[in-house]
Design brief:
Number of domains: 1
Number of strands: 2
Number of helices: 3
Structural class: mainly alpha
Largest sheet: 2 strands, antiparallel
Helix content: 40-55%
Shape: elongated
Radius of gyration: 17 Å
Distance between the termini: 32 Å
Length: 83
């Protein structure tokens, strides 16, 4: 998909360095960095963590954690964030 992004100078530099080192497009490098930051793998391209994302419908699932999120957790976070 084609889109326009405003990136910080240092983020653009990192993405360009990865693109040059891995011999890929800048868009692919940015996509790889976003997936790595989100903790999910990639679909058809090179793997960031060596695994494909788990999908439910069209949404990628985050890795399983060892804690249970309760309504109290949600309320506490909402209060902290001012929601």
């Amino acid at each position: 998909m084609r889109t326009t992004l405003n990136l910080a100078d240092d983020a653009l530099l990192v993405a360009k360095q990865i693109a040059a080192r891995e011999r890929m497009s800048l868009g692919d490098a940015v996509s790889q960095l976003v997936r790595a930051g989100a903790g999910v793998g990639v679909g058809a391209g090179a793997s960031v963590r060596g695994r494909a994302p788990r999908l439910r419908g069209r949404f990628a699932l985050l890795p399983q954690r060892d804690e249970i999120i309760t309504p109290e957790h949600v309320r506490e976070l909402m209060e902290r964030e001012g929601i």
